Amino acid sequence: MNRILPVCLIAVTYATTVAMPARAQGPALQKGVGVQMAVTHHALPMAEADNEDAWVVAVTAGGDLYFGAEAMTPDQLAEWMRTHPRSREANLYIKADARASSANLEKVLEIGHAMGFDAPVLLTAQVEPKTPGTMLPPKGLIVLLDAPSDANAIVVSIGRRQNSSTLSVNNTEISADALARTLQQLIQNSGNHVVMVKADGAVPFGDLAYVIDVCRSVGANAALPKAQL
Which residue of 24, 40, 118, 137 pairs with 213 in a disulfide if CB–CB is 3.0 to 4.6 A? Predict the structure, then answer.
């Protein structure tokens, strides 16, 4: 079975080193384990993620998986989802540590995709003022798992080299600072508002979240490569 985010999907041999933004501890949800959430700026409110019956899967920095507060292996998680009914309108929320590898996030996305989740939500922390004594509602980034392949697609590739992430757009190396400007120009020229985001399995989730967040900032939907079952 091929994976949604293959470990060596894109080599990006000549891409430049990317200085990704700092990560910070995000607000904890009402249930589940705490992780160091990736910080984003353009996530959408996801109040449903705080519901008692919400399906929230946490991925720790070391790759451990939790459904709510219960530790599970990938096989146990898949079996639990398979044997528990859910509302058709319910979504899958993934609360990944910013330091978790994309390969470990991929395991959850694969399971969710097999269960019929085509647009899961990656929960993130936000840089915004907080009133003392209050808890900020959860926010997240929607990712598409079933976007059709397109020969003219805009493709952002994130690689990993010497403990740093590298970045390229349509096989052209760029800096992180140039990503938004580059995507905006390509979208204007092509009219394509779906950006395929391909990440090496060693890339930290925080770096992947940064790219997805930039896609949203320019009005694009981020899609991860379609699973080949």
Answer: 40
